[in-house]
UniProtKB/TrEMBL annotation:
Keyword Chaperone: no
Xref: CDD domains: AdoMet_MTases
Catalytic site: 239
Residue intervals of the O-methyltransferase C-terminal domain: 98-309
Domain named O-methyltransferase dimerisation: residues: 4-73
Gene3D superfamilies given in the database record: Vaccinia Virus protein VP39 (3.40.50.150), Winged helix-like DNA-binding domain superfamily/Winged helix DNA-binding domain (1.10.10.10)
One biological process term in Gene Ontology: methylation
Entry keyword annotation includes Hydrolase: no
MF terms (GO), sorted A to Z: O-methyltransferase activity; protein dimerization activity
Keywords, ordered alphabetically: Methyltransferase, S-adenosyl-L-methionine, Transferase
InterPro entries reported in the protein's UniProt record: COMT-like (IPR016461), COMT_C (IPR001077), COMT_dimerisation (IPR012967), SAM-dependent_MTases_sf (IPR029063), WH-like_DNA-bd_sf (IPR036388), WH_DNA-bd_sf (IPR036390)
Name of protein: Methyltransferase
Length: 330
C-alpha cells in the first residue's frame, strides 16, 4: 500500500511542477507554497514524504532543495521523467488498472479497451492533448536510457536508418552524431511528424540536417529499402503488439526489404526464460493493460521472427536495458 501512496505523491509533485520551481534554490515550504499555488501545511507534508523517499532533500526543518532524483522531475532537465509520471498516473492510464484489470485477465481483452472503448493507439489518434503527453513521455524514456546503444550498434555498417515509430528522432540522431556518413528517415504518425518538425526547426544540434521525416506506419507506406546498407530501426514498437500483429508488422518489413539485403534492428527488452526481474515483468503487464502487447523472451521472439519469414542474425546486448535483435531476409 505504501508504494501506491508514494506513486501518488510523485504524481502530485509532478502536477505541481515543484522540482522545476525549486530549480537550484533551497526554499522553505511557505516560500514554495506561494510559487506553486498550494496549501502550505499540505505541501509541507507532501515534501516531507518525498524527502523520506529520497526524492528532494530536507536541508533544514521544512526547507527543501533538489537532489539527483528530484532533478528528474524538472521539466527543464535533459533526463526528465515528469511526462512519464504524468502520463502513467493520469486518470486515463490509471482507470484500466483500478477498474478493469481483473476483467481483462479473465477474458484477455486489454483493460484500456474495456475502460475507454478502444485500444490505446486508436485513442491517441483523436485525443491530441493526451497524444502530445504520450509522445513527450516516450521521448523522456529515450533520454533516460541514454545513448550508449549508439555505440553498441555498429553504425559504420550502414548508410541510412529508417526509424519506424521514431517520434522526434532522438534515438536516430544519437547514432548520426557518431557516424557522419549516415542519414536517418523517421516514419511516424502524421501528428507526431508535424510536432517533430516544429521542434527541430528551433534547435541547432549537430546532425539534425541529416534527420528527415515521413508520415506513415508499419502497416501503411513503409519506405522501401534501397540497398544492403539500409537498416530499419524499431525501438520499443513491437512490444505494443500481440503475436499475430507483431508477425504481420514484420512481414510488412520483409516486403519493404525485398531483395535489397537490408537489415532490421528490433530494440526491445528481452525477458529471461525464467526468473523475470520486477522491471521486465512490470513492463510486460503494462503492455497487456494498455494494448494487449507483451515483452518477449528470446524463444518467443524467435517464433514470431520465423513466422514472418525473416531470420534472426544477431542479438546485440545493450549496456542499458534491452537488446537489439538484428534481422535479415532469408
Amino acid at each position: 500500500m505504501a508504494f501506491y501512496w508514494q506513486s501518488r505523491a510523485l504524481f502530485a509533485a509532478a502536477r505541481l511542477d515543484v522540482a522545476t520551481v525549486l530549480g537550484p534554490e533551497s526554499l522553505n515550504a511557505s516560500e514554495l507554497t506561494g510559487r506553486v499555488g498550494a496549501n502550505g501545511d499540505a505541501l509541507g507534508r507532501l515534501m516531507r514524504l518525498l524527502a523520506a523517499m529520497g526524492v528532494f532533500e530536507e536541508v533544514a526543518p521544512m526547507v527543501y532543495r533538489n537532489n539527483k532524483l528530484s532533478n528528474c522531475l524538472r521539466s527543464d532537465d535533459r533526463q526528465s521523467v515528469r511526462a512519464m509520471i504524468l502520463m502513467h498516473n493520469s486518470e486515463l492510464m490509471s482507470r484500466p488498472w483500478f477498474e478493469k484489470l481483473e476483467a481483462g485477465i479473465r477474458d484477455g481483452t486489454s483493460p484500456f479497451r474495456l475502460s475507454h472503448g478502444e485500444e490505446l493507439f486508436d485513442y491517441l489518434d483523436h485525443h491530441a492533448d493526451f497524444d502530445h503527453l504520450f509522445s513527450e513521455a516516450m521521448d523522456s524514456v529515450e533520454a533516460l536510457a541514454g545513448d550508449g546503444f549508439a555505440t553498441d550498434l555498429d553504425g559504420s555498417r550502414f548508410e541510412r536508418i529508417i526509424d519506424i515509430g521514431g517520434s522526434r528522432g532522438t534515438k536516430a540522431l544519437s547514432i548520426l552524431k557518431r557516424h557522419p556518413n549516415l542519414v536517418a528517415l523517421i516514419v511516424d504518425r502524421p501528428q507526431v511528424v508535424e510536432e517533430a518538425q516544429r521542434y527541430w526547426a528551433n534547435q541547432h544540434t549537430d546532425g539534425v540536417e541529416r534527420l528527415h521525416f515521413q508520415a506513415g506506419d508499419l502497416f501503411d507506406a513503409i519506405p522501401a529499402a534501397t540497398g544492403a546498407k539500409d537498416i530499419y530501426l524499431l525501438s520499443a514498437v513491437l512490444h505494443a503488439f500481440d503475436d499475430s500483429t507483431c508477425i504481420r508488422a514484420l512481414q510488412k518489413l520483409h516486403e519493404a526489404i525485398g531483395s535489397s539485403g537490408a537489415y532490421v534492428g528490433v530494440l526491445e527488452m528481452v525477458m529471461p526464460e525464467t526468473g523475470a526481474n520486477i522491471a521486465s515483468a512490470s513492463f510486460d503487464m503494462q503492455m497487456f493493460v494498455g494494448c494487449r502487447g507483451r515483452e518477449r523472451t528470446l524463444s518467443e521472439w524467435k517464433l514470431v521472427i520465423q513466422a514472418s519469414g525473416l531470420v534472426l542474425e544477431e542479438v546485440v546486448r545493450l549496456r542499458s536495458l534491452g537488446s537489439i535483435l538484428v534481422l535479415r531476409s532469408r
